[in-house]
């Protein structure tokens, strides 16, 4: 909250996104957000 992102580089933002998306979540059955998203995409095909 109240974080100024004006001075955050794209590389720093990508690193933060990777950390978030690759962290296993209890609410997703200990899958990562990326794994859960990929699984949902496969169900659409």
């Amino acid at each position: 909250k109240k974080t100024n992102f004006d001075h955050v580089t794209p590389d720093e933002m990508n690193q933060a996104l990777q950390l978030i998306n690759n962290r296993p979540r209890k609410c997703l059955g200990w899958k990562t957000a990326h794994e859960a998203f990929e699984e949902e995409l496969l169900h659409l095909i």
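The mean pLDDT is 92. Residues 33 and 39 are 10 Å apart (CA to CA).
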